[in-house]
Amino acid sequence: MSSFKPDAVELRHHLSEVAKARATSPLKGLQKYLNKPGLLSLAGGLPAPDYFPFADVSANILVPNSFPSTTSGESNFSWIWKLFGAKEKTTAITIPKYARRPEDLNLATALQYGLSSGLPQLQKLVENFSKRVYDPAYNDCVTMLHAGNTDAWNKAVLTLCNPGEGVLVSKWTYPSAMASMTPYNIRPVPVDIDGQGMRSDALRTVLTEWDEDARGMPRPHVIYAVPIGENPTGTTTGLQRKKEIYQLCVEFDIILVEDDPYFVLQEGPYLPKEQRKPGSPQTDEEFIASLEPSYLKIDYQGRVIRLDTFSKTMAPGCRLGWYTCNAMFAERLERAAETSTQAPCGFSQSLVASTLIQWGEAGYMRWLKGLRVQYTLRRDFLVDCFANEFQLITTSGTDMWAGCQVFNGSVKPKSTTHFFNEKVPLSTPIFSFVPPTSGMFVWLKVHFTEHPAYSTLGVKELETKLFIEFAEAGLLIGPGAMFNPTNEWSNVTSGHYRVSFSNGENEELKKAVDIFGKVLRRFMEV
Amino acid sequence: MSSFKPDAVELRHHLSEVAKARATSPLKGLQKYLNKPGLLSLAGGLPAPDYFPFADVSANILVPNSFPSTTSGESNFSWIWKLFGAKEKTTAITIPKYARRPEDLNLATALQYGLSSGLPQLQKLVENFSKRVYDPAYNDCVTMLHAGNTDAWNKAVLTLCNPGEGVLVSKWTYPSAMASMTPYNIRPVPVDIDGQGMRSDALRTVLTEWDEDARGMPRPHVIYAVPIGENPTGTTTGLQRKKEIYQLCVEFDIILVEDDPYFVLQEGPYLPKEQRKPGSPQTDEEFIASLEPSYLKIDYQGRVIRLDTFSKTMAPGCRLGWYTCNAMFAERLERAAETSTQAPCGFSQSLVASTLIQWGEAGYMRWLKGLRVQYTLRRDFLVDCFANEFQLITTSGTDMWAGCQVFNGSVKPKSTTHFFNEKVPLSTPIFSFVPPTSGMFVWLKVHFTEHPAYSTLGVKELETKLFIEFAEAGLLIGPGAMFNPTNEWSNVTSGHYRVSFSNGENEELKKAVDIFGKVLRRFMEV
């Protein structure tokens, strides 16, 4: 780790007017009194914990090795639990209202008004995780809890941007993140992507050729990045690409917000069924080393605000995650929380902290390894379904998929009738995708150029029509238009659909691909 | 209840530019498909509930009659529990991951991404509560869950106000609410108060005499009100005053945000110990009728956004509450939540819902009656302590306390030395207060005009010096300066301190008043 200590003052000009106008903490002057032992405080508007109706809160939590840590032929047996009502292996945790030792988790503290930065016990746990797993490039970065990445991004963008400014985003990106900022007149500036997400050469071009007058806004000083299993495209940005993008951040004085919910869901390359080999268990160090690193690892100037969430590693309803960033940004983000969300929910903080304590650091690593395998099995199963339903031919990708092996789906020669259908030759693919190496999504391109009505209806219209046909047949998948951050369609020649494999059981995924195939073939008239 | 249906469109011009710019829900077009039974959805980015580590969550909750429902001589015995380790009477609740009946609370739903408006089961419970207890003046008001009143106010003010606008507030008001809006250049406009909070005549004067140029902003169209046990002054706005203020809202086209965390803590008038009579139990209807009503009861035009919270009725760490307002405002507030906080924490929603279901509506009413009594006992005890420590003489209030019985504290003739101290005659009070009828706070005025250094140091300096002396002696109370929404001090001749009785045990309250007395007498040189 570098001993470089970023001078936060150099980055101060990145703060928005709102962030600058936030007062220092009202508690600041009182801090020395608040820490005085034995001080009697009638200053706060605190209800008495005796009147909290919760005498204790407990949970039965799954043991860390509930799911296999390798893809060695084992499949997802969770449906068996539900089918036969069998009990998973669990362990009990309890948080009492009053703890014997003040350092132990207790509801009297967790359910009281508390620090917006979160319960100290949980703060310590996430700090250790961030330092161990992300290995930040400077020593004194700060971790601070937040109420989930959506809110954290909202606070981050309003801390960094003024109305009328722009944020650099991937050409296809997460719509909620855009909906968070556009009402404040902070506009997305799309950058072309390839199989690794945002292209560094395209980013350089946008920045170098920036014309403030033509664009109607100053050159953006913020990047919104989802570097692992990007939503919706499923792309993952490797370390070399990250270095190139970070170098541009240094060169053009840019802050990068790394929204990384899928970090542990790095499933690796998809292999056809017959080529899969049983994996061997990894040590924690091997596991960490096998994951594409965070931007924090190369952030020697404190330009990265990383957003972590428990939504994918525990549950979205926790509404809990944490920032890792430099102290100056952390302080402004804490002020923003104090006057809005305050601390994250106390049930969530204490139950998540208690789970992590019960599991221990090694247990949590084991849990994450299991999750990665489970989502890998689901990814593999969905792609296998496509391989069963269609003839999949791989080609080298171009444009958005340059450098990737693209899977092109064409009608499978099921019956002789297909051989004589001359509308579309057998080898013409009607859709394509790159199996993602991370995350929850397969991003499909449907080749509407092959559709008889392409020239009359256009891509957007066809995309909507097909979306409705899928839905009418019983399958809901995300239409590409949702993920277009601008209303620019001129260079879009395919329809796009985001298919999530994260929450479908095998039978559901199979049924979904059946419907997809039937509807798509009919729609494309092949 | 009136059958008047407010035309929400008439109020549309109150929406801020940000609120207007919020898109309609991205789910809107898909709604008809989402509700289709048997539809297979691979559209969302949902993790699989099988991988939520929480197999179930349980709590032992206090029974609804844990605390006496009347002040009939019973005192707060909660310290005995802790002293002897005795168990409170509790009942168990459990929320399983998967419920047998889909309408039952379950973690698979509660901990999944969900509607920003909250879990339907909890929504129904708060809707019933709002309708029954607040008895709104129009039929089709909407309830919607939120993540606590601080965040709800933040969302409300940004939904209603543009930068450069003002919000009408009481002369002394809640600092966090101000800190929520001032960084956006939405400025507080103080209105004079009396013993019932904001004065309607003063409000009319401010509105009638509004000079946009002199003030540098348009006439405000939003009031921030804490009508019950206002923070910090402890004042409560009666129905007649509410009608007068509401009439001004109609006349001057104003939206009123009612932040009402202390609604059930309506303790009633303070009576000296010897005058207290044992109360008799109230039916639920009598209990509801005994509470000052909400602004909703007179809101026939949909001008009120009411904010309710579970922070005082359950625990602040729930970070859970709800809006009651017209459908148009609710829709914009829901959009604001979707792109930031999303749904309130799922643990909180399901545990609070399960508690309310376990208790039943009558049980919850019984719980609230008990809370009211507990805080009444604490209020009484604190004032009793002042009566023991000082000679308290009551007078009719003027100015801020017009219409109130004011308690004036002077040095108690403990020893003969006091009789011959000529610096301050015995009858000269050194501080005053009005015992609050609601809430958690006693708002003290210290008569610095009697202080030898008044003319040289001034009020603000003396207030800070005395605050530090209290703290150095071991007592922390809120200095008045924190609650001054502007930096205007010209008409302030007393020092102010907010003393909270909500979270002190009897011994602590007694010790606090001992310190207060000792330090104040020394400081005032009496």
From TrEMBL, chains A, B:
Pfam family name, one: Aminotran_1_2
CDD domains linked to this entry: AAT_like (cd00609)
Sample GO molecular function, one term: transaminase activity
Stored InterPro entries: Aminotransferase_I/II_large (IPR004839), Class-I_PLP-dep_aminotransf (IPR050859), PyrdxlP-dep_Trfase (IPR015424), PyrdxlP-dep_Trfase_major (IPR015421)
Family under the similarity heading: Belongs to the class-I pyridoxal-phosphate-dependent aminotransferase family.
Ranges annotated as spanning the membrane: none
Protein's name according to its UniProt entry: Aminotran-1-2 domain-containing protein
Domain Aminotransferase class I/classII large: 108-392
Cofactor(s), by name: pyridoxal 5'-phosphate
Keywords: Aminotransferase, Pyridoxal phosphate, Transferase
Organism: Mycena indigotica
Biological processes annotated in GO: alpha-amino acid metabolic process
Top-level division of the source organism's lineage: Eukaryota
